[in-house]
Specification:
This protein has 261 residues and is α/β, with parallel strands linked by helices. The protein has a single domain, classed as Alpha/Beta hydrolase fold, catalytic domain (Rossmann fold), CATH 3.40.50.1820. Helix content is 38%, strand content 20%. Helix 2 crosses helix 3 and helix 5 packs across helix 6. The protein starts with a strand and ends in a 5-residue tail after the last helix.
Length: 261
């Protein structure tokens, strides 16, 4: 349950509707939460009230195609060009000129790209299980989720709760997107050095979709990066390890400024 909720708005961004939720004081450092490839605003339910209570201005939204935002015919991953344009336009419409980005999985990749393209705007960033290339471990994890979607009624109901009647399109957009042949040659490592802000790179050692080396490679590419490998944690550590993750998240963000002591 989200506390300290200020507003829930529907915004027309680049021609489509985005569902945007804000919490916490308006004069706090803006912290934008970017959900994972099958997620929504609901994915951050363990973080939003904690961040708001700490004095941050939290902005969480359903990216185009997800949750309560408009349906979408396809995703443009792995480069997420449209999502990056949407984030830029949304921040401009909200009057936010300085921001901290916190992204999980696909959302972490978007945060990295955004920090490269908008260096002067990003105070700091946190990535959780982000992707910067396709490694061998990703394919079995994706196929495991495909099997769960096909046969696990509990998984399907969870998707429907998050995305409504478009839940099947959400899944297939994500699955089909990561299976494009061009994704196999994608690699962000050569451009990570363009990120000039502090970064916290987080991943569980038991992540189903990436090895710890993936997080090491992200941290190695960013000059001001801290690496935090959480022993035994899985891909969905935001929920499963919230009691461990949230205090470290707050500590890092407060170094960016504006959180209450």
């Amino acid at each position: 349950m989200i506390v300290n909720l200020q507003t829930i708005v529907e915004m027309i961004v680049n021609g489509h509707n985005l569902h945007v939720e804000q919490a916490g004081p308006e004069d706090g450092l803006a912290v934008v939460l970017l959900h994972q490839g099958l997620g929504s605003v609901q994915s951050w339910q363990e973080q939003i009230p904690v961040l708001a209570d700490a004095g941050f201005h939290v902005v969480a939204y359903d990216r185009w195609g997800y949750g309560d935002s408009d349906p979408r015919p396809a995703l443009d991953l792995p480069k997420f060009t449209t999502d990056i344009l949407d984030l830029s336009e949304m921040l401009q419409m909200l009057g936010i000129s300085r921001v901290a980005l916190v992204g999980h999985s696909d959302g972490g990749t978007i945060a990295l790209y955004y920090a490269i393209k908008n260096q002067g705007q990003v105070s700091c960033l946190v990535t959780i299980a982000a992707h910067i290339y396709v490694e061998a471990k990703m394919e079995p994890g994706i196929l495991q989720l495909k099997q769960a979607f096909d046969v696990d009624e509990r998984f399907r109901k969870g998707m429907q709760l998050a995305h409504g009647e478009k839940f099947e399109v959400v899944f297939h957009n994500w699955f089909d997107g990561w299976h494009r042949i061009e994704s196999l040659s994608w690699d962000m490592r050569p451009i990570l050095s363009q990120i000039s802000c502090p970064a916290l790179v987080v991943q569980g050692t038991a992540d189903e979709h990436a090895t710890p080396q993936h997080a090491r490679d992200i941290a190695a590419g960013i000059a001001q990066a801290e690496l935090w490998l959480i022993e035994g944690a899985h891909h969905m550590l935001l929920k499963e390890e919230a009691n461990l993750f949230n205090p470290r998240l707050l500590q890092f963000l407060k170094r960016c400024g504006a959180g209450n002591p």
